[in-house]
Write a structure and sequence with these properties.
Elements (H helix, E strand, L loop, with lengths): L1 H8 L20 H24 L3 E2 L4 E2 L6 H13 L11 H32 L1 H14 L4 H11 L4 H25 L3 H9 L4 H12 L1 H22 L8 H10 L3 H29 L8
Antiparallel strand pairs: 1-2
Helix pairs in contact: 1-9, 3-12, 4-5, 4-7, 4-10, 6-7, 7-10, 8-9, 10-11, 10-12, 11-12
């Protein structure tokens, strides 16, 4: 019923005129976007290579680029990390098991955060009592960074999988719940009224009108939460964990392997990017491409 209500009241996205065949380099085309998106990474690699060769020192922050590995060294170390056969050291061929382990921790922590934050945020956005009960609690704990939780988590939980998953779930929870609150508060009143006029009960209005209409804000909050989950992963895996991308980065730091530190950072970045694409693709598939998800 909700989809019918939302679809009926939303503007018709279909164009009135016949569709024109898109040009390959037209503004907004996939090829145009890929080409534009390649410019900044290429410039970054050029600055990286030149800065290392010339031993630049970036003012204010004091980064000495002469200590960085070259892009070619990083590519070689990445290949060895994935397939071995170049350095044949403690990192060789360990990418996939570390990536799988870290991805599982992120998935579990993110799933826990989403399962709690989405329904709680929807209820807080629609009901005054729920908002009054939880808003002070959430805003009291929200500014506390994950780094401040680490000593307490170590004492209460210890180090390992559970502590890492807890830190990920805790950090991802706040952007997701804020997105759900914002989305449910911004549901147009005419959608609620239309649902009631069609005889929907309160829970039906909530489940079939409010939740779909809140989807864009909820999805945005989940995307932010997923990104933070990968950030906190390195922090959680930094102590008491032997397997994982974060553990490898810390190990590379301890043995002064700057190339492997950069490789670990790159793998975390790519994994975070791909997980965001997968999340968006799952929502597009779930909603069958309806214009509620942008």
């Amino acid at each position: 019923m909700t989809q019918a209500i939302v679809t009926d009241l939303a503007p018709d996205p279909s164009p009135a005129s016949p569709r024109r065949r898109p040009r390959p380099f037209a503004r907004g085309s996939a090829l145009n976007r890929v080409l534009l998106g390649s410019i900044v990474p290429i410039l970054f690699l050029i600055v990286w290579q030149v800065g290392r060769e010339q031993a630049w020192e970036i003012p204010v922050v004091g980064i000495r680029m002469g200590y960085l590995p070259s892009p070619a060294d990083v590519v070689a170390s990445l290949w060895d990390y994935a397939f071995g056969g170049i350095h044949d050291d403690a990192f060789s061929g360990d990418l996939w098991i570390n990536l799988g382990t870290s991805s599982l921790r992120v998935l579990v922590g993110f799933a826990i955060a989403s399962a709690i934050a989405v329904p709680l945020g929807i209820l807080m956005g629609r009901y005054y009592t729920m908002d009054a009960l939880f808003d002070p609690f959430i805003n009291l704990f929200r500014p506390i960074p994950a780094t401040a939780w680490v000593p307490l988590v170590g004492l209460l939980i210890g180090w390992g999988d559970q502590a890492t998953i807890f830190l990920i779930a805790l950090s991802a929870f706040f952007p997701i719940v804020l997105g759900a609150i914002s989305g449910s508060k911004e549901v147009p009143p005419r959608l609620i009224e239309a649902g009631r006029m069609l005889g929907a009960r309160r829970w039906e209005v909530l489940a079939q009108v409010v939740v779909p209409a809140s989807a864009p804000a909820v999805v945005n909050g989940m995307r932010v939460g997923l990104g933070i989950a990968w950030v906190v992963l390195v922090l959680g895996e930094g102590v008491g964990v032997n397997v994982g991308l974060g553990a490898n980065i810390i190990l590379a730091r301890d043995v002064v392997r700057t190339d492997m530190v950069v490789v670990g950072m790159m793998v975390v970045g790519v994994a975070g990017f791909l997980s965001d694409r997968i999340l968006m693709g799952a929502f597009q598939l779930f909603t069958r491409g309806r214009p509620l998800i942008k």
